[in-house]
Amino acid sequence: MPRPTVAQLTYGSCTVIFSTLAMLLLSQTSSGPGIAVVVVAAVALGVLVAMTVPTPKPSRTAVARSAASAPASRPQPVTVPVTVPVTVPAHAPVQAPVPASVAAAPEPVREPTAP
Question: Can you tell me the distance from the alpha carbon of 12 to that of 43, in angstroms, rounded to the nearest whole number?
Answer without folding.
Answer: 8
